[in-house]
Amino acid sequence: MRATLPSILGLIALAGAARAAEGVLDTSFTEPNGERVLQQSIEVDASPACPWRAMTDEAAIRASGVPMAHVDLRNGGLIEEGFTADAKPGGPQAIRHLIIAYLPERLLVLRNQSAPAGLPGVELYPTIVQVDSVEPLAGGRTRLTLSHTGYGAGKGYDQLYAFFRQHNPEFLIQVKSRCEGSRAPD
Length: 186
Known about the structure:
The chain is α+β, with helices and mostly antiparallel strands. Helices cover 32% and strands 32% of the residues.
């Protein structure tokens, strides 16, 4: 039997459904100019306040297992995270993002300023813009979507894209678990 385009697209959808079964939906795509957009989302049974805090509240970030977090939540502010015990704000072990724009509990737009050595494609990370959206859904649910724009062609971009494609779902699943498991007031 010869494969048709609809049957091939069906197989691709089934592969995506496996990830969706974990709760993460991957809707990544390629722009007409050839740049890739990494886009992954998860639905959370909580109001937008909980996923928002997971990204912007120092105590919530540290509670997720990140040893160092510093947040200056304002346009032009910074979000810094350190994944090692010796990480300090502004230090070489910190990942530092400039807050380009934000709408409380709705949108956070970031551009990386620096990241620790060892991140695959680290030299290209400052060319990526991260757009995190928090969308209220019916029934008190929320969709959290992480979108990274600007992945060009080449080995460095491929490595950076692969790293975040693998690790962003871990973050999304952790947010879902914490927001749904805590049942703390939003």
